[in-house]
Records
---
Amino acid sequence: MRLRDLTPAERRAVEERRAEVRAALAGVDPAWRPDAAAIDEAPFLDDWSVRNYPGTDRPCIDAYCWGHPLHGDTILKTSVIVQQGPGYAIVESGKVYLLGSPSPEPEARSAILSGRRGKGRPIDAPAPEDEADTGFKVG
């Protein structure tokens, strides 16, 4: 599934978050601090929730992701989290992620992806206005 493109305002918000993460990581022990290039290339996760990595009791993040170098803009489950702070997470693979807003309903995405959301609407039926995605949140 490909996500919609971010608007210019959303891209500015992501860059503001990137600057906040740089500032937050400046105080972290250099042994645990990613380099500037890792932060510059960090994918952005929004509507995220922490879950157990499959088959373990270790945490990972399930989210909508923009800018992943391999997967592009999609729904993503990260590898296991090794460090998390204000606006960022670093996972076992060494990848840094910028974090937007946590999911207000973490079970909703899982239900949709697993087919548990019920019968749904006919494929040719338009989405009701009250269900339309009203935008992106950073936060």
---
Amino acid sequence: MKLLLARHGQTQMNQESRFYGSLDCPINQTGKDQMKELAEKLRITQPSVDIILSSSLNRCVESAEIIMENTHYPSVKVKKVEGLSEIDFGKWEGLTANEIEQKSPTLWKEYIENPFAFCFPEGETFLSFKDRVLLAIDSTLTSISNQSTVLLMCHLGVLRLIKDYYDPMIGKSFWDYKFPQGDYVEITLDINDFNSKG
């Protein structure tokens, strides 16, 4: 299986560097242009895509639809996968790092010192987020033919998890994986490996 990892187009909150994991917002004009750029790259480098998987949040669905409209994959379908949404930042949703630090300096310090053990106020822990995402992608991909080319349109945190889990790079951590908007990262997988990791 060929898995193409792509990040959704830019949003206004993205541009303002806000925490907005579970907030549902559209992509902006820059984001639309980025997705058209991505579509052109896919048209040149990928003769076929069999299915597009997407987070159910609007910014990913909208991005996937732009890809469909601007590529030569006439029969491709977009499948929304609920478990692939970004981490829920709880009460921090919609805020910038500076705003959070001003309102909750102690909690912010805890997060900075140990982000993988931190529970966002009324939100998710990193572990619950990771378990949710890997269960969702695992169960979805194991139902797709091993010979397929799959485009995954998703969020930065989700893409980092999937890349690190299925195609880790020696010496790289979660934060090191880059997914610039308007581009994609390709992973080649044997579908049978998905079940072997437990």
